[in-house]
Amino acid sequence: MNPVTPDEEMAAEVQNGNTQAAHVLMSRHRDGVYGMALRMLRNSEDAAEVTQEALVKALTKIDTYDTSRPFAPWLYRIARNLCVDRHRRRRPTSELNEEITAAPGVMEGGARFGQRADEVAHQNELNAALAVAMGTLGDKYREIIVLYHYDHLSYREIAERLDLPDGAVMNRLFRARRKLQVALLERGITP
Q1: Widest CA span in the chain
Q2: Distance between alpha carbon 28 and the CA centroid of its chain, in Å?
């Protein structure tokens, strides 16, 4: 089995009972599913549990997967639904998860090489305000922000993952940004 075999072919192999293909396919997507779950749930333990649950569910439901369609959106839809279910079941928390508030490239303590202490403090304040503002968004708005701005997916990729028309993705992202802007303004942060 070639390591660059397309996901859809690998899934067909899994449907035929190939356990090696199952291992390769799930390994390819484990980190991506975890990252999405972490950004949606803002808790590393919950994200790890949902990732495991999503991968197991995908394997147990692999016979329902249509190999003529892209595999990743099917898998991510399973993970997304599990995240939404988990989020609904758990109580809201005021704890900020450092994994989502830390900016990329930031060293421990929030500093970047060559960055002044006042800049670090300001960036930490912005990150904390953004995390709180993201927490005020509904699931569908937080999710679209995460997929576009954190996962850097295109409108088309988001549409496939969420099973929405491209126009609905653009509309939802526009509304999500507006809501996020209002939430930040309420905290005294000008976006």
Answers
A1: 59
A2: 16
